[in-house]
Write a structure and sequence with these properties.
This protein is of the alpha/beta class. The protein contains 6 helices and 10 strands, in the order E-E-E-H-E-H-E-H-E-E-E-E-H-E-H-H. The strands form 2 sheets. It has a 5-stranded mixed β-sheet with strand order 3-2-1-4-5, sandwiched between helices. The protein has a 5-stranded mixed β-sheet with strand order 8-7-6-9-10.
Length: 232
């Protein structure tokens, strides 16, 4: 299977090529460089691997939540490629992507919990809880947006780690959340390599959709957002 994955949902910009279980990735921290960097990354990946766009079986992208502008960039590129190449698309949660990153980099044990937090601006966090199920993140409950004081862990899991840049607000979280976290990695941001690995699993589960159904996920109430023009 050959799958191209994209992520521009945070300050990181990345593209990754998944080929039969192996992943090649281009990644750069570039808060305002997504539009400039993404297409060259895609072309370089394909050129270095020796594949053409027509060789791909599917496309994938981190659909959010995250930067509104960034999420729209990846959505537009993946939709354009999918329409042009007549390929299916797999949408992957940006929060789930970081949960996989935590599992792979933080030595998260099977059954242990991963609480992922992104800075959602306006004094709020994007928040989701996952458990490690045989090396893959399983969402517990729902993804949500709330103030740091409103986050909560899911019952039934004893050991937790925290992942994502939203954990810089740990001091504003309830004591029964911050006090139960064994370790935190505030540096983890979504990466296309993790998107690709999750997308391959979802593709095999029949979760690919046509281009027009590949939509961004904002989580935040869009009506509320429109009251604050110019914010990203």
């Amino acid at each position: 299977m050959k799958l191209l994955a994209l992520d521009t949902s945070s300050e990181g910009c990345s593209a990754a090529l998944f080929v039969d279980g192996e992943v090649i990735e281009k990644f750069e921290i570039a808060p305002r460089g997504h539009t400039r960097l993404l297409m060259p990354m895609i072309r370089t990946l394909l050129a270095e691997s020796g594949y053409k766009p027509e060789d791909l079986d599917a496309l994938a992208f981190a659909c959010g939540p995250g930067s509104f502008t960034g999420v729209r960039i990846a959505t537009g590129v993946v939709q354009g490629l999918a329409w042009g190449l007549d390929l299916p698309v797999i949408s992957v949660s940006s929060l789930e992507t970081v949960a996989l990153g935590a599992i792979e980099t933080m030595q998260v044990s099977d059954g242990e919990g991963v609480a992922v937090a992104f800075d959602a601006r306006m004094s709020e966090l994007y928040w989701a809880c996952f458990s490690n199920r045989s090396g893959l993140p399983e969402l517990l409950g729902e993804e949500r947006v709330c103030p740091p004081s409103g986050v909560a862990l899911v019952s039934g899991i004893a050991d937790w780690v925290g992942a994502g840049q939203g954990w810089v607000f740990r001091g504003s979280m309830p004591d029964d959340v911050s006090g139960r976290i064994n370790s935190v990695d505030e540096t983890l941001v979504p990466r296309a390599g993790w998107v690709a690995r999750l997308a391959a699993v979802k593709f095999n589960q029949g979760l690919a959709v046509p281009a027009e159904q590949a939509q961004p996920v904002y989580v935040r109430d869009e009506v509320t957002w429109k009251k604050l023009p110019g914010r990203d």
